[in-house]
Amino acid sequence: MFPELTSEYFESVGITVDQPKDGHRYGGESIELANFCCVGGDVVELGSGCGVISLILAAGNHQHSIVAVEIQETLHNIALKNVEQNNLSKIVTCVNADFRTYARRHPSSADVVVSNPPFYALNSGRMSKNILRANARHEVHGTIDDLIVAAKLLLRPKGKLFLVFLKSRQYELLKSAEKNHFKISRMSEMNAKPYFLVELETLSS
């Protein structure tokens, strides 16, 4: 049983994406992250929500496989629906799991990891009473450090990690990246927007 949904058509890649009318809804940063990514080989998206990033990547380049990992069952089920209605099931596999558990069970399985993680720490700001929105905006199911550790586990040598994150937490993210043996390959500060995009590459441990 789905909540009430709305649909958006992406003419540039020819896909339709459904998402909840209320609760968590993807924002412009997800689209910008998808456009920022350079993907190939085996791709894993961590915290995929309704699957919009994975769908855009799959529709734009059929020469890779994508695993979309989402812990919230409602959003996972919507992602499954989106994959099926866009005929992308041969490229995108949806997994309902905690990204930390998934990474431990699938080490060195990806060439690229992509994520638009929750922007806010648990102890910051007002948490929404809507469960879908709260889990998407706050680090209920893992911190940014947990995500970078998971990405490191998943990635093969010279693997790439693409992220969008708050500028006010940029130092925190980059320190975690350095600690986990990533280097910055590319960054976009996105002008007046509150978030930035970054491409990280694994280094030898």
Protein model, in words:
This protein is an alpha/beta fold and 205 residues long. Helix content is 32%, strand content 31%. It has seven helices and nine strands, in the order ββαβαβαβαβααβαββ. It has helices at 28-36, 52-60, 73-85, 99-105, 131-137, 144-154, 170-179; strands at 5-10, 15-20, 41-46, 64-70, 92-96, 110-115, 155-166, 182-188, 195-202. Helix 1 (28-36) packs parallel to helix 2 (52-60) and helix 6 (144-154) runs parallel beside helix 7 (170-179).
Summarize the structure.
With 205 residues, this protein is α/β, with parallel strands linked by helices.
Features:
205 residues; 31% strand; 7 helices; globular; alpha/beta; single chain; two-stranded antiparallel ribbon
**Average pLDDT, to the nearest integer?**
90
The coarse overall form would be globular
Rg is 16 Å
User: Main beta sheet: strand number and arrangement?
Assistant: 7 strands, mixed
Category from helices, strands and their pairing:
alpha/beta
Return the string of H and E elements: EEHEHEHEHEHHEHEE
Q: How are the strands of the biggest sheet laid out side by side?
A: 5-4-3-6-7-9-8
Distance between the termini: 45 Å
Helix content: 25-40%
Low-confidence stretches: none
Query: Number of helix segments?
Result: 7
Number of strands: 9
Strand % is 25-35%
